[in-house]
């Protein structure tokens, strides 16, 4: 008999070691752990201390060894190139082992960092799993980031090798990844020893003879590498995410805890059995891609799909349903913004009706708040449960969800449902008092966090403590605000820092401001996230010019838009800047971004008590009205 949510959740909080040891038993360990949870050095908790394992072994070889070698592990479907491929667990294991051997023969060793800057092609997964196989630490950088962002990551994690492709394809545009990579290496202080480039026929890259090899050249003469046993707490990967400063944070994930959490989550959160097809339509550059395109489905023995396309325009808003039908997808995961894009082009769901979705059981949404209108539209047209769940790059998997494999509860629109077992979620105020049902406050998670969550920030333990663990000692600060209702349902309402969420992509307004302020005519700038029907939020910039500037305003605006695109990347979707005389500030000089955002969104706001000059808010309102806000 399966246990109720309450029983399982209580057990996970009161007896986490027993709870997670049982989950860990289902995976392969070369050496069992000495201690399930090492709490000797909080907040640096270590799961399965002393254990030795290999994530790649558990994701691929284990299934082959258990007789499932001929089952499909990976499907690659690329509407932008017309290519469709399938790989069994055995075929993919062999490809990964060979590439891992090639990396070893080029000097890549356990603990070395490898940056992967690739589009959604099978080689991206081969590269990630090959690193895991030999204990190298991968750091995947999203292809929509520009050279400068890539350079910052190169300087931070100092990769021995960078693996990339000659190009990516974005609908009908060819993106020259190699040019972006070469420029990033030029900008970076640290230089990798080698770059491995997967040449694609849509655009062949020029190679630097001293530094670059093609993917094919790299494999010449290579021998397959076996899996190397690594410590449970050895890093599997670093994934950079936006922080409150312009500098991204390198979230470090371990091997053992991550593997256990990923595996557990497939059955319990997503309610999916080995052998079924699971599809997360995200990108390997994001945490959703790491966890639910690559690691969790493979660890659980599911078929996973690499989709090189978009929800609309590749070729039409029916592509998701075509894939669900063609591969018999049971559980599908995407971002609400993708659904808004589909709803806009196919409001009546005509495309949905063209496909047989009888295998499709559940839709999961995350990455941003799932607005009730989108959830209801999806429910009406798909006739399956639509589950909003909340998580972050830092946690690596869901903090709150309506766990479909435990005891599915009622859906409450606007809520990500209850805390997932392992996460002791609380809402507190600045005095660290726990708030009652329905009271809005800071959402925190009491220590210890469950397995799979971040270990630290790469080479920045102090920054890790300052960013997440010091405001509320004993708790992890999520930087999300919200409330919990009388039934334990969690409502995520807003970020408490300057992170904005553009089409499910997490970006820092601070980083965009740094680009605006780099313009020689700009004295000061502020960026806010304004509500957008499609992307959830889009950034709008405010510029205060230096005195005596006579450059035409339109030219300054054009230049700062170019700066952001060139230095951060097109995914920032920065298309609008307004020149104002001054910015509203508190008496201590803090820019009142939250109030500006409310004005732009047409929301009620209370006049901040500490405002320096209330009249400036009227100027901001007029400036926003001049460009059509509030919408
Ligand atoms: N490589 C290079 N460029 C990329 C890129 C990549 N991997 N991904 C996006 N870009 C570019 C796009 O080409 C676009 O450039 P443009 O300004 O020249 O048109 C820009 O970045 C913005 O892209 P995107 O955010 O994808 O917006 P869009 O308007 O092209 O499409 C959606 C809108 C809603 C369809 C799209 O954002 C989407 O599919 N979102 C889902 C996001 C998601 O899965 N997030 C993961 C969290 S679960
Ligand atoms: P990322 O690290 O890119 O996954 O972004 C994490 C942030 O996205 C969270 O801190 C939230 O602000 C937001 N987010 C993710 N999922 C949800 C959700 N289901 N509901 C509300 N906000 C979400």
Report on this model:
With 631 residues, the chain is an alpha/beta fold. The chain has a domain of 127 residues: GMP Synthetase, Chain A, domain 3 (2-Layer Sandwich), CATH 3.30.300. 32% of the residues lie in helices and 24% in strands. A hairpin with a 4-residue loop joins β4 and β5. α3 runs parallel beside α10, α4 packs across α5 and α6 packs across α7. The structure holds coenzyme A (COA) and adenosine monophosphate (AMP). Keywords: Ligase.
Jot down its keywords.
seven-stranded mixed beta sheet; binds coenzyme A; binds adenosine monophosphate; 30 strands; ligase; five-stranded parallel beta sheet; 631 residues; AMP-binding_CS; alpha/beta; 24% strand; GMP Synthetase, Chain A, domain 3; single chain
Summarize, please.
The protein is of the alpha/beta class and 631 residues long.
Portion in beta strands: 15-25%
Major sheet: 7 strands, mixed
Which ranges are low-confidence, i.e. pLDDT below 50, for 5 or more consecutive residues? none
**CATH classification, class level of the domain at 500-626:** Alpha Beta
Number of helices: 19
Question: Which structural class fits the helix and strand makeup?
Answer: alpha/beta
Alpha carbon gap, first and last residue: 53 Å
Helix content: 25-40%
Shape: globular
- Looking at this structure, what is the CATH superfamily of the domain at 500-626? ANL, C-terminal domain
Just name the CATH architecture of the domain at 500-626.
2-Layer Sandwich
| CATH topology category name of the domain at 500-626 | GMP Synthetase, Chain A, domain 3
Count of individual beta strands: 30
Overall pLDDT level: 96
List of distinct ligands in this structure: coenzyme A, adenosine monophosphate
The largest sheet has its strands arranged as 5-4-17-16-18-19-20
Radius of gyration: 24 Å
Family: Belongs to the ATP-dependent AMP-binding enzyme family.
Organism: Prosthecochloris aestuarii (strain DSM 271 / SK 413)
InterPro entries: ACAS_N (IPR032387), AMP-bd_C (IPR025110), AMP-bd_C_sf (IPR045851), AMP-binding_CS (IPR020845), AMP-dep_synth/lig_dom (IPR000873), ANL_N_sf (IPR042099)
Domain AMP-dependent synthetase/ligase: 66-454
């Amino acid at each position: 008999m399966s246990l109720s949510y309450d029983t399982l959740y209580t057990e996970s909080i009161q007896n986490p070691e027993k709870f997670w040891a049982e989950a860990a038993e289902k995976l392969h360990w070369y050496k069992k752990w000495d201690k399930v949870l090492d709490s000797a050095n909080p907040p640096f908790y270590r799961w399965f201390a002393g254990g030795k394992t290999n994530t790649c072994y558990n994701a691929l070889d284990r299934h082959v060894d258990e007789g499932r070698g001929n089952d499909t592990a990976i499907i690659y479907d690329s509407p932008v190139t017309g290519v469709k491929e399938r790989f069994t667990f055995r075929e993919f294991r062999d490809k990964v082992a060979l590439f891992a051997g090639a990396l070893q023969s080029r000097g890549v060793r356990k603990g070395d960092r490898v940056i992967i800057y690739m589009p959604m092609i099978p080689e991206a997964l081969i590269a990630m799993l090959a690193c895991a196989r030999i204990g190298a630490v991968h750091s995947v950088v999203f292809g929509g980031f520009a050279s400068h962002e890539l350079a910052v990551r190169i300087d931070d994690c100092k990769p021995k090798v960078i693996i990339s492709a000659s190009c990516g394809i974005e609908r009908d545009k060819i993106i020259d990844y190699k040019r972006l990579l070469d420029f990033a290496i030029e900008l970076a202080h640290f230089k990798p020893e080698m770059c491995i480039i997967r040449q694609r026929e849509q655009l062949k890259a020029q190679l630097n003879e001293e530094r670059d090899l093609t993917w094919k050249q790299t494999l010449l003469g290579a021998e397959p590498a076996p899996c190397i046993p690594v410590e449970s707490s050895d890093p599997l990967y670093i994934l950079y995410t936006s922080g409150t400063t312009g500098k991204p944070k390198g979230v470090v994930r371990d091997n053992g805890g991550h593997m256990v959490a990923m595996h557990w989550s497939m059955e319990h959160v997503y309610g999916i059995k080995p052998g079924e097809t699971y599809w997360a339509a995200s990108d390997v550059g994001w945490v959703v891609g790491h966890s639910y395109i690559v690691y969790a489905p493979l660890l659980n023995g599911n078929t996973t799909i690499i989709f090189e396309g978009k929800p609309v325009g590749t070729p039409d808003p029916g592509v998701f349903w075509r894939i669900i039908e063609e591969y018999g997808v049971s559980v599908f995961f995407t971002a609400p913004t993708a659904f808004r894009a589909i709803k806009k082009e196919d409001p009546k769901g005509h495309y949905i009706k063209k496909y047989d979705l009888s295998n499709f059981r559940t839709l999961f949404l995350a990455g941003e708040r799932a607005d009730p209108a989108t959830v209801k539209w999806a429910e009406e047209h798909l006739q399956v449960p639509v589950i909003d769940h909340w998580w972050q790059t830092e946690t690596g998997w869901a903090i709150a969800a309506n766990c479909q494999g435990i005891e599915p509860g009622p859906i409450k629109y606007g809520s990500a449902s209850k805390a997932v077992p392992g996460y002791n979620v609380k809402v507190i105020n600045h005095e660290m008092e726990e708030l009652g049902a329905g009271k809005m406050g800071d959402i925190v998670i009491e220590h210890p966090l469950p397995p799979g969550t971040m270990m630290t920030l790469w080479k920045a333990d102090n920054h890790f403590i300052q960013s997440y663990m010091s405001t509320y000692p004993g708790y992890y600060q999520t930087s999300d605000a919200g409330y919990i209702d009388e039934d334990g349902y969690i409502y995520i309402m807003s970020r408490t820092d300057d992170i904005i969420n553009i089409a499910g992509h997490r970006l820092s307004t601070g980083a965009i401001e740094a680009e605006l302020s780099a313009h020689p005519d700009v004295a000061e700038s502020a960026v806010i996230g304004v509500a957008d029907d499609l992307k959830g939020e889009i950034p709008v910039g405010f510029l205060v010019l230096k005195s005596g500037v006579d450059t035409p305003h339109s030219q300054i605006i054009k230049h700062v838009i170019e700066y952001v695109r060139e230095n951060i990347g097109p995914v920032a979707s920065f298309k609008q800047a307004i020149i104002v005389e001054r910015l509203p500030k508190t008496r201590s000089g803090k820019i009142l971004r939250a109030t500006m955002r409310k004005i732009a969104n047409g929301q009620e706001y209370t006049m901040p008590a500490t405002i320096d000059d209330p009249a400036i808010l009227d100027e901001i309102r007029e400036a926003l009205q001049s460009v059509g806000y509030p919408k």
